[in-house]
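ARCHIVE RECORD
Type: protein–small molecule complex
Small molecule: 4-methylsulfanyl-2-ureido-butyric acid
Source of inputs: curated submission
Record status: active
Notes field left blank by submitter.
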Amino acid sequence: MSRILTIAAAQLGPVARQDSREDVVERLLVLLREAKAHGVELVVFPELALTTFFPRWYAEDRAEMDGWFEAEMPSPATKPLFDEARELGIGFCLGFAELTPDGHHYNSQILVERDGRVVGTYRKVHIPGHEEHEPWRAFQHLERRYFEPSPEGFGVWRAFDGIVGMMICNDRRWPETYRVMGLQGVELILCGYNTPIHYAPDPTQDILQGFHNALVMQAGAYQNGTWVVGVAKGGNEEGVEGLAQSAIIAPSGQIVAQALTTGDELVVARCDLDWCAKYKGTLFDFERYRRPEVYGLITSQRGVVPPPEA
Ligand code: CDT
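STRUCTURE (tokenized, with ligand):
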């Protein structure tokens, strides 16, 4: 049986502060219908797709930000997306800010199968940015104020006739993200992102944002023999330029399709999940070649401990 899955990275252009969830869902529906016309079975939307990237603003009382969060999924505003996707027989992955019934705040992604079944919800592990107001910056990146890190880590799910995992934005820069899923046999990793081009702590990196984005996802795909789908919310959002360059990457590490614009755009590729076995069964045959007995520092230590001075 063939395991070729047609996937779309549904890139979004900017979402303004005053745009309602209903406005955004209309845009998602346009992309979903276009995907159907291309024979797509899985549509991947960006991180925090339903609203503007609100962590760029500071609130003394973090509860003031709760209005940006979803207390249920589907919510009344997103139900039309769930309904239409099920009717079209298309699965999707959607990034949103999650407020749990017991009051936890996560940066999350939900994965929904073609029949409407919720496969799972992933919560971001690597929370970037800062906790406190830093007025010297041109804009804030307060994810560490508004989101808790995932207590669950990187699971994978049997879905879409393969083994699927998720990561969110900053997670893609960390090799452990891919390897933990690689050790569970992942064949397809779905990743939404909001990446400002300007990086205040070191602006020399600004010009390299596109390079670093491709570098980490291509390396992660190749070193773990998995497809990776990276999907941006790009363009100029509330005065902040966001990286676009959404891409679908093969287990070889090659980019097989990439966005041409910084706006709403569907990037489509036919992804053969069986292609993963070529890499998982040869160079990256983990069972044969890995040496976990000498990798202990990876899990026993967080920061750098250099050797003592001579
Ligand atoms: N959304 C997100 O995770 N963005 C980060 C910005 C890092 S700089 C604070 C990223 O890794 O792209």
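CURATOR ANNOTATION: Residues 47, 128-129, 141, 169-170, 173, 193-195, 199 surround 4-methylsulfanyl-2-ureido-butyric acid (CB under 6 Å).
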